[in-house]
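Help! Submission page says 'invalid entity' but I think these are all valid:
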Amino acid sequence: MLPIFCLRLGEAAIESEAATFRIRKMEKIPKYERLMNLVACLLKSRVPVAWSRIRGTVVGYDDDAAPGTIRRRFERDKDELRAMGVPVRFLPPTETQDEGYTIERDECFLPPLDITPEEALALSCLSGVGKGRDLLLDGARSALMKLRASEPAAFGKGEESLLLDTGLAAPGRAEQNLNELRRAVLERKTVQFRYRSLQDSRPRMRTVDPYGMALFEGRWYLVGRSHRRDALRVWNIERIAGKARRLNGRSPRADFEPPEDFRVEDYVGLPGWLLYRGRKRVSVRIWFHPDVAWMIAESAAASGDVRREKFTMHKDGSGVLEVKMADPRTLVTWALKFKEKAEILSPPELREVAARVLTEMLEAT
Amino acid sequence: MATNTKEVSDLLLLIPFIAGHPGVTVGEVARHLGCTRARVEGHLNRILMCGVPPYLPDNYIGYAREGDRIFLTLASHMSHPVRLTLEEALGLRLLLQALPPAGKGRSPAATLLKKIESALAAGAGGEFHKMSRAIALAEPKRFFAEKFDSLREAVREHREITVEYYSPSSERLGTHTVRPLGLLDHEGDWYLVAEGKRGDRLILRVDRIKSVGRTGRDFEPPGDFDIADYRVREVYFPGKDAVSCRVRFSPELAPWVEERFDRRRLRRRRDGSVVLSLKASSPQWLFRFLLKFGGDARLLSPKDFVRDFRKTLRRLLEIYSAPQAKIR
């Protein structure tokens, strides 16, 4: 064992060429170098490359390890390359060609996308978004670089004075859990975390099948099935105390399958008055002054279908919004924010709630 | 992705990127990759190790440096980027969702989304569709595409404009002449950064702009303007004449308040309630803020604001004391 140990450290002064050769053979080739050599070899060759040639000549597969070990190494590397979007295929022998491994260029490389100047400008606004490290933000960055690399001429020098600050990566405390949860959603893995809800003074353990996650007002929310309640719930990621972790992180199998029709937007980003599930939804009509009616009309036109709203504009510029409501107080306080420029028309019970809220506020102030 | 796998995908990305941009600087590459210059230098050294049998000098990818500029040689077999992985496509889709709306039937976000789908790695299509419904931006959609287009054009062409704007402090719709400098998205809301008539900086929320008109005059934007200076946690800047106010929140609301506001501005009381100190540029803004919380918020000071707030509450109570609304 001793001579090998010395060779590894490179301390022994060995002068013969044979010994130098042995050092090269025993030196551990870093994995990235092995994988890159394999990709380069297959891309450079115009014909499929036989296993015997890879095994004998590509650095990283040319050492003294047992043939079975090298073969397994190759199979693992193929899996990793596939995950990166580089599929290595085996082609059986044909009349004109020997069998061997190849990377099909059409399958591997980005096709021409013919990026238009408008699209290039939009993409330029997106580079530089967010500073954090995060699975999807990193993904977006490398996607943008790939598009630039693919069609460099499409991207002019023109940049717009347009700043996106979406808060895509969660700030501070939530950052450490964001990646774990993203992975859990993508791999369909059950997660466990301690959660500090606003009602609880101490964080409590939750076991969750995470179906999805969404960003709303700068915060990420997790949506999934709570094991304890066997029902869909929404969690604010910033309220997770400590680390979230996948329960069976090592197993390649999915722990659950989300419902076919699951859509994260149905659970996050809705106005508060729609949120109380299980309560009956009541129709409400609210009048708006011309100074503000157009604003309400625009928002109803953009997302009225999701928010269950309809707006009718009158000739004088005023208008009436019809909404469905499950929680009276949230809707009342929202309408009151417009002061005299809005008035709840019906139902009369909701006007009573408004009067009650105002009386409470007068008493408190 | 494991660390050493990430190295490989970074290299497979960098080689075509540098090959496509001969003479790109280390700093630019680092900016696009969202990493340090040192990491880029490390990657460049690794690129030099990539070769093909029989590993003679010209079987390796090489690079030349001219100061900070990089040029690749012998990289033609690897100079094309690999298709998009699921994470890349999903990440890019999220960013596209954050793009401002575009009018006149041309939305680069929509056409790009189609192109992303055609650029996906083999077999990733099904997962991409499923996960697009699972991971999303849930910010409310805005309906101001054409208006936004005019603002964008005015910013680009340095055109002075008039905006019909609903001012949150006066609570009135008024017309203002401004010089638009940039547009900024903050947590789902778009803002126009502009210069007012007296050279003052204004930040106008785009959804409060009712219409945009041209004055026919162009302007020279200030040389030191950089929209990136406006990347902040809060877009609300209290003016010089802002007044210090104190608001008490009920114990029920206290945990929520503690989560949202800077702790230095909060004081917890023995009864579990919490007092927030804040600056208000206008009483109107403050009153709207208070009305959101109903009886759970109570304005403590200043005294004249308290008096005016009570007046507002009484006026509103008068409206709702009638069992039926006036016929509107």
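Support: the input was valid. A stray whitespace character was the problem, and the output above is from the cleaned input. Chain B has four domains: 3-78, 86-134, 145-230, 243-321.
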